[in-house]
Structure formats: C-alpha cells, structure tokens
Amino acid sequence: MPRMKKDIKRIAIVRLSALGDIVNSAVTLQFIHEKYPDSKIEWITEEVFAPLLQDHPLITAVHTLNLKELKKSKSFSLLKRTISQLRSLGTFDIIIDIQGLLKSAVVARLVGANTHGFDKNSAREGLSSLFYKTTSHIEYDENIVKRNTFLVSDGLGFKIDDIMLKSKNPVFETVIYPLEKNGKKNIAIVIGASWESKKYPKEKVLQLCNELKENSIILWGSDAEKEDAIWISKNSAYANIAPKLSLIDLVSLISSVDLLIGNDTGPTHMAWAQNIPSVTLFGPTTTRMIYETSINIGIKSSSIVDIYHIDKNDFSIKDIPVYNITREAKELLK
Fold first, then answer.
1. What is the CA radius of gyration of the chain?
2. Which of 12, 62, 151, 227 suits 84 as a labelling partner, its CA being 20 to 30 A distant?
3. In this predicted model, what pLDDT tens digit does every residue of 72-124 receive, in sequence order?
4. Is 67 exposed, middle or buried (0-12, 13-18, 19+ CB in 10 A)?
5. Which domains, and CATH codes, for the chain?
6. Continuous segment of H or E residues that includes residue 71
7. From CA 94, how far away is CA 179, in angstroms rounded?
C-alpha cells in the first residue's frame, strides 16, 4: 500500500538521462500535481535534456549537471562545484530517484537526506538502494512506465493506475508544427537509435515509405543518420528529410503528425507521451519499454530477449516484415 504523506510542498525528481527515459518519467508530473496541487516540483537532469523540461508548466525549476564532462575531464574543481551546487538546492520533502543507478542515487543523496528509490531487488543497479531513506519494490521486468509511475506514486502516498495512464493529458505543451497539407497523412519515421542493432534497415524504411504512399518525414539525430535519411528521401517520392530539430521542435513535430513509426528510442516514445498513434519496432529489446494502448503498438522480432542481459548483437529487427508494419500503420491511420 502507498505510504500516507502530509504537507508535501517541495519535491525533487532525479532522472538524469536518457531522452526516452525522461519522457517516460515526465508523465508522472500531471498526477503529482493533481494529488499535491500546491507542491513545487523540481527536476535534476543532464544539461543536454534541460530544454525539454525548462518551460514545463508543472516544473518549478530545472537543475542541470554535466556528468559527461565531469567524467571526461576528471576535474577536481568541477567535481567540487557540482557537489556544492547539489548541496545548495535547499530542503526537499522528498527526493525521488527514478533512474535507479549508482550515479543518480549519489546525486539524490547529495541533494538531501529524504531520498526515495527502488529497493535492491528492483533497481537497475542494486547498490543504489543503499543511498535511499525509503524504497519501493516492483519487479525489474515490469513495464518501464509502470515502474516509473509506481515508484513516484508509492513514494508520495497515492496510486497511479491504468485508467489514469490511458486517459492522461499530453506530457508536454507545444505548438503546432507546420507540415505539408496535400491530402495525404503525415507520418514521422524515426530511423536512429543508441545501438545499431535497434535500427530498422534503411532499405526496409524505403520500402515502408513506398508502400504507405503518404507523406513520410524522416527524423534523424546524427550525421550518419542524416546520410541515411537523405538516401531514403532521394529514392522515394513519398519521403522527405526533416530539418535539424531542437528538442522543442522535435516535440512540436511529433505532436503534429498523424502517426509515428520508429525504433525503440527517445523520439519514438514521445508519440505515446503526446497521445499520437505510433508503431514501435523491437529487436534486442521488448515491448516492456513502451506503454501499449489501442493507438500505440509494438512489433517485436522473433528473437528471445533476456532483459537482465541485453544482447546488443541481436540484429533481428531486420527480420520484421515491412508488411506487418504497413498493416498496423494503415489501421492506425483510419
């Protein structure tokens, strides 16, 4: 049962990275605000993700760190400044570490003593639990969105259930992105991912665009992905490469399309966050990474995945038939 809480006025959320995990954690904001409308919610994250959160109406302040630079430079003065910055944030009624890693647990504990996180059998890195004052237990193999929402709601003394998640508001406020209007549907296609084995082959993306015969907008995030996007757009009359997008513009574009198709990566998860229909493709990972709904569908390759020991050399995503994707896409576009 959730713990009963009183007088929650100031809450810190620690979720340093990555984009998809931040998106899937930010859904908790609306439910916290509903339960504690007078509380101030502050978020601690890596600098690169701050623009996504800084103007969020339910976040009072965003505090940023540059842990990558700290690790790279091994600068004692930068370490000292980082520790001083965290210790100067003041007193929080609760500091919730949603990430469950040693680094995030240390950050949470440097902020203050009232820390809450996953217990040793629930966290991605069990040793992180040593830094928490209170913990919650939920199986590690549970759906990632349910893990995040359970941890937050359990720590704050209430419950977030499936009914609430299925009727959620869009996670981020945004403006309409100007898209082509020519009588066709606009489909965003995310071709990138953090691992090569998560990526659907560009040749099959090309085939997908040609079979859908709609306006396919190819999203990219690196130079290599841009080259693939250019190749796809040059070889399909139905594909266009998206411009270089800021995080804010990315949310705006995704919130404006009719459908998103993509690999298991941050921009793909944004579609679910914004209540946009989506098809997510999985090879070395599983549909555990998304919250499936009637409009947010996962397609998994035939490989067997051990989530405790992910095989980054599992390239089975390439075996997902294009027909399976087009079939789901056409149903969602109806």
1. 20
2. 151
3. 888 888 889 999 999 999 999 999 999 999 999 999 999 999 999 999 999 99
4. middle
5. 10-166 (3.40.50.2000), 186-333 (3.40.50.2000)
6. helix 67-73
7. 42
